[in-house]
Design a protein that fits this description.
Layout: E1 15-19, H1 24-35, E2 39-44, E3 54-58, H2 64-70, E4 78-81, H3 90-107, E5 116-120, H4 124-127, H5 155-170, E6 173-179, E7 182-183, H6 193-207, H7 217-221, E8 223-224, E9 227-228, H8 229-241, E10 248-252, E11 258-259, H9 260-270, H10 285-288, H11 293-303, H12 316-323, H13 334-339, H14 347-360
Parallel strand pairs: 1-2, 1-4, 2-3, 4-5, 5-6, 6-10, 7-9
Antiparallel strand pairs: 8-11
Helix pairs in contact: 1-8, 2-3, 3-5
Protein name: NAD dependent epimerase/dehydratase
Organism: Gluconobacter kanchanaburiensis NBRC 103587
Domain PRISE-like Rossmann-fold: 78-365
Length: 365
């Protein structure tokens, strides 16, 4: 895909700051930008130094003086926000996560040079925050971008408002991207269904436990969709470089739909195990894996794995939230397709590609 960044932006129009570069979303957009020949600065509290082509920037988004110091020499043309911090209440989520976005624009020495800023949020835009997740009247599906905001506190809304304010102040274009559950490679990520299910399947194979789908009957039986992190990166890049993506919010999913009762046996087959019969009710994966830290250490030692800490690979609480939804979740991406985005990703490959990489990186046996 060729870039249509305005020529007036000059050479600096290919300099990106990826905020949250070590997460699933950040790693994938950073890799995409590097492959496109961009200069990429990856910001994180604990940046990785092994991301090919990414220049690490260490900073705490909530510490404005240190953030200002860390960004003092950077004059990016594009900013990609791929980070959030979970707090105890949604009120604190709103305050903290919007402050992180505002602080970046305050800390940048010349925000007026920005061409575009992209923010990744998600389906909680339509389903509500974790403390009231998918409660109340069922949302109308498929989710569409023109749906009104829920009458609830939601840190996604505060993040959007912070982005809109900065865009109006500094004159850059913006885009907001709303993925469903993101499947992709990352270690130590707070929301990582793919690697969580890989850990779960590995434990079931090693112990003979039944590989039970932990979600709700609705999720087991109904149609749903997911977002490969590579598909999200494709849309982020498109919206940031093409006129059709500017000043818009877009849903982003793979482009296919499936039922978990169809996909679950296929995931089991990859690990060489049988899928257990669905019990007809949700089963907490967080409780199932709660006592398995020492077991994972033993598995890690047995196979010489690179990560012995189960909490670095599995985020069962988040997988429970996603798979435990009592409502149908189907997403419409017609808006970006009509605007020119043509990306597609086959969902079973999202999982098997991830599992293959986890094995190659010696994170699962």
């Amino acid at each position: 895909m060729t870039s249509s960044v305005p020529a007036s932006a000059g050479v600096s129009a290919r300099i990106a700051l990826v905020v949250g570069a070590t997460g699933i979303v950040g790693q994938n957009i950073a890799a995409r930008l590097v492959a496109e020949g961009w200069t990429v600065h990856g910001l994180a509290r604990r940046p990785r130094h092994d991301m090919a082509g990414v220049l690490p920037v260490e900073a705490d988004l909530l510490d404005l003086p240190s953030l200002t110091h860390a960004l003092r020499d950077l004059r990016p043309s594009h900013v990609f926000f791929c980070s959030w911090l979970r707090q105890d209440t949604e009120e604190e989520n709103c305050r903290v996560n919007s402050a992180m976005i505002r602080n970046v624009f305050v800390a940048l020495p010349e925000p007026g040079l920005l061409v575009h800023a992209a923010l990744t949020t998600g389906m909680k835009h339509y389903l509500g925050p974790f403390e009231s997740y998918a409660s109340g009247a069922p949302p109308v599906t498929p989710f569409r971008e023109d749906a009104p905001r829920l009458d609830l506190l939601n840190f996604y809304y505060d993040q959007e408002d912070a982005l809109y304010e900065a865009a109006a102040q500094h004159g850059f274009s913006w885009s907001v991207h709303r993925p469903h559950t993101v499947i992709g490679y990352a270690v130590g990520n707070a929301m990582n269904m793919g690697s969580t299910l890989a850990v779960y399947a590995t434990i079931c194979r090693e112990t003979g436990r039944p590989f039970v789908f932990p979600g709700s009957p609705v999720q087991w039986n109904a149609l749903t969709d997911l977002t490969d992190a590579r598909q999200l990166a494709r849309q982020l890049f498109w919206a940031s470089t093409e006129a059709g993506g500017r000043n818009q919010a877009f849903n982003i999913v793979n482009g296919d739909v499936f039922r978990w009762k169809w996909l679950w046996p296929r995931l089991a087959e990859w690990f060489g195990i049988e899928a257990a019969p669905y019990p007809g009710h949700a089963t907490s994966l967080e409780e199932t894996l709660a006592g398995d830290a020492e077991l994972w250490e033993r598995i890690s030692t047995k196979y010489g794995l690179a990560e012995s800490r189960i909490e670095r690979l599995a985020s069962a609480w988040h997988t429970d939230a996603d798979l435990g939804r009592p409502v149908e979740c189907v997403t419409d991406i017609s808006k970006s397709r009509l605007a020119g985005f043509t990306g597609y990703q086959y969902t079973p490959d999202s999982f098997t590609d991830l599992f293959t990489r986890l094995r190659a990186e010696k994170l699962i046996p």
